[in-house]
C-alpha cells in the first residue's frame, strides 16, 4: 500500500523530533549506514530512509549523531546548507541573551530576537500553555520545516525538551503586516508595496495548496501571520494550526481553528474543510490591505456608509463603480485604480458563501498577475446578514 511507507517516514520524523539533541545533516532520501545512526537523548535510534519536502524539492533534514562534542552554532554549520537544526536550549538561551528582547506575544507564546555566533539575526518562538503539548509544535515543524518558498517563513531549527518547545526562524526586520496596516506609528505601505504583498501571499498559499507533496491548509491566514523582510517581501508564518490533506482526499473533518473575522462559513456549520477556507481568509485579508483598517472596525468613511460592515461596502461599491473610496485614506489617493478594482473583485469572489464559487489560490495568482479577468461578484448573503446586524 502506497500510504504505508509515507506513514512510517512521518512517524519516524515525529519520534526522533521529541528528543533529538545535536546536529549533522542527512540528505533527503540518503540511506543511513551503520555509522549514521539516528540517536535520541534516551539512547534509542533508528535506521533507514527519510524523504522530505515538496514534490520537486531536494531538502535536507538535520538530525543528531552520537558524538560527544560541543557545537558552536552558526547559520552555516547549523543549517548544513538547507536543513532543520535541533538546537540545545542553552544555545538559544545564549543567542537571545536569556530571552530579553521580546518581538511579540500572542496566545501561542512569545517571540524573541536572537543572534547566532556568526552574527546572523534570528527570531525564537517560545511556545506556551497548550501549544507546548506537542500537537501545534509538530504541525509547525512538519509543515513549514519541510517546505521552501520565497513567500513562506524559513524555519532554521527547533528545541524540544519536556518543559520547553522553541522554534527558530529567520528574522523579519519589518515584523508583521498588521503593524503597517493598523498601527499609527509604523511605516505606511504605498499602493505598489501593498499590491506586491497581496500577490506574494497568494503565491505562498498556492504553493502550500497545490505544489507540496501533501496539500497544506494553513487555517489561520490573517495580517498578524504575514511577516515582512527587509524588502517588504511577505512571508506566511505561524503554521501551528496547519492541516495536512493527502492528495487522494478532497476535504477533511477537523475541529474548528482560526481567528474570528477570517473564518469561512463551513467552519461555523461544522462541515468538512478544503483549501477554500484559506481562500476565504485571504479574501478578508485583501480587504484589510486595501482599506488599512480591520474589517470588524466600525468607522464612518462617508455619510452614506453609516456603520456598514466593510466587506459589504466593498461588494456594494463594486456594483456602483466607486472603488476609489475604499482605499486607505493614508495613501492620499495615490493608488492604481485598475489594480484596486482587480483586488476588490478577487476579495469578493474569495469570500463567497459557497466554497465552490471561490477561486483557487492558483487562479487568484493569475488574476493578480493580469492573466485572467473576473466578472463583478455577487453579494455574499451571509456577509449581507452580518452587515445588517452591524448596522442595527
UniProtKB/TrEMBL annotation:
<keyword id="KW-0472">Membrane</keyword>
<feature type="signal peptide">
    <location>
        <begin position="1"/>
        <end position="22"/>
    </location>
</feature>
<dbReference type="Pfam" id="PF00069">
    <property type="entry name" value="Pkinase"/>
</dbReference>
<keyword id="KW-0067">ATP-binding</keyword>
<keyword id="KW-0675">Receptor</keyword>
<dbReference type="InterPro" id="IPR017441">
    <property type="entry name" value="Protein_kinase_ATP_BS"/>
</dbReference>
<dbReference type="InterPro" id="IPR036426">
    <property type="entry name" value="Bulb-type_lectin_dom_sf"/>
</dbReference>
<feature type="domain" description="Protein kinase">
    <location>
        <begin position="97"/>
        <end position="372"/>
    </location>
</feature>
<keyword id="KW-1133">Transmembrane helix</keyword>
<feature type="binding site">
    <location>
        <position position="125"/>
    </location>
    <ligand>
        <name>ATP</name>
    </ligand>
</feature>
<protein>
    <recommendedName>
        <fullName>non-specific serine/threonine protein kinase</fullName>
        <ecNumber>2.7.11.1</ecNumber>
    </recommendedName>
</protein>
<dbReference type="InterPro" id="IPR008271">
    <property type="entry name" value="Ser/Thr_kinase_AS"/>
</dbReference>
<dbReference type="InterPro" id="IPR011009">
    <property type="entry name" value="Kinase-like_dom_sf"/>
</dbReference>
<keyword id="KW-0325">Glycoprotein</keyword>
<comment type="similarity">
    <text>Belongs to the protein kinase superfamily.</text>
</comment>
<keyword id="KW-0418">Kinase</keyword>
<keyword id="KW-0808">Transferase</keyword>
<dbReference type="GO" id="GO:0004674">
    <property type="term" value="F:protein serine/threonine kinase activity"/>
</dbReference>
<keyword id="KW-0245">EGF-like domain</keyword>
<dbReference type="GO" id="GO:0005524">
    <property type="term" value="F:ATP binding"/>
</dbReference>
<dbReference type="GO" id="GO:0016020">
    <property type="term" value="C:membrane"/>
</dbReference>
<keyword id="KW-0812">Transmembrane</keyword>
<dbReference type="InterPro" id="IPR000719">
    <property type="entry name" value="Prot_kinase_dom"/>
</dbReference>
<keyword id="KW-0547">Nucleotide-binding</keyword>
<keyword id="KW-0723">Serine/threonine-protein kinase</keyword>
<keyword id="KW-1015">Disulfide bond</keyword>
<keyword id="KW-0732">Signal</keyword>
Amino acid at each position: 500500500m502506497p500510504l504505508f511507507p509515507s506513514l512510517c517516514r512521518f512517524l519516524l520524523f515525529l519520534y526522533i523530533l521529541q528528543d533529538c539533541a545535536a546536529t549533522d545533516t542527512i540528505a533527503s532520501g540518503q540511506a543511513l549506514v551503520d555509522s549514521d545512526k539516528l540517536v535520541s537523548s534516551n539512547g534509542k535510534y533508528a535506521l533507514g530512509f527519510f524523504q522530505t519536502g515538496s514534490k520537486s524539492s531536494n531538502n535536507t533534514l538535520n538530525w543528531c549523531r552520537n558524538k560527544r562534542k560541543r557545537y558552536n552554532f552558526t547559520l552555516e554549520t547549523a543549517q548544513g546548507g538547507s536543513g532543520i537544526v535541533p538546537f540545545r536550549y542553552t544555545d538559544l538561551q545564549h543567542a537571545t541573551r536569556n530571552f530579553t528582547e521580546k518581538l511579540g506575544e500572542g496566545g501561542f507564546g512569545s517571540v524573541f530576537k536572537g543572534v547566532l555566533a556568526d552574527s546572523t539575526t534570528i527570531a525564537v518562538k517560545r511556545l506556551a500553555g497548550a501549544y507546548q503539548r506537542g500537537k501545534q509544535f509538530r504541525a509547525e515543524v512538519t509543515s513549514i520545516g519541510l517546505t521552501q518558498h520565497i513567500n513562506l517563513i524559513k524555519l532554521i531549527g527547533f528545541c524540544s525538551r519536556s518543559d520547553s518547545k522553541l522554534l527558530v526562524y529567520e528574522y523579519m526586520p519589518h515584523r508583521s503586516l498588521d503593524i503597517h496596516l493598523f498601527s499609527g506609528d509604523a511605516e505606511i505601505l504605498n499602493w505598489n508595496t501593498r499590491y506586491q504583498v497581496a500577490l506574494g501571499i497568494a503565491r505562498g498559499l498556492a504553493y502550500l495548496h497545490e505544489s507540496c507533496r501533501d496539500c497544506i491548509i494553513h487555517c489561520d491566514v490573517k495580517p498578524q501571520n504575514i511577516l515582512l523582510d527587509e524588502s517588504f517581501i511577505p512571508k506566511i508564518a505561524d503554521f501551528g494550526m496547519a492541516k495536512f490533506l493527502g492528495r487522494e482526499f478532497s476535504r477533511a473533518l477537523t475541529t474548528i481553528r482560526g481567528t474570528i473575522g477570517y473564518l469561512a462559513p463551513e467552519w461555523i456549520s461544522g462541515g468538512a474543510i478544503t483549501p477554500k477556507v484559506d481562500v476565504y481568509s485571504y479574501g478578508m485579508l485583501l480587504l484589510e490591505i486595501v482599506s488599512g483598517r480591520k474589517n470588524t472596525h466600525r468607522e464612518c468613511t462617508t455619510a452614506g456608509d453609516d456603520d456598514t460592515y466593510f466587506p459589504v461596502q466593498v461588494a456594494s461599491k463594486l456594483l456602483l463603480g466607486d472603488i476609489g473610496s475604499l482605499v486607505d485614506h493614508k495613501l492620499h489617493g495615490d493608488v492604481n485604480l485598475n489594480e484596486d478594482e482587480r483586488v476588490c473583485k478577487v476579495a469578493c469572489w474569495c469570500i463567497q458563501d459557497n466554497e465552490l464559487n471561490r477561486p483557487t489560490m492558483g487562479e487568484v495568482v493569475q488574476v493578480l498577475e493580469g492573466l485572467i479577468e473576473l466578472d463583478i461578484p455577487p453579494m455574499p448573503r451571509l456577509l449581507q446578514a452580518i452587515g445588517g446586524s452591524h448596522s442595527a
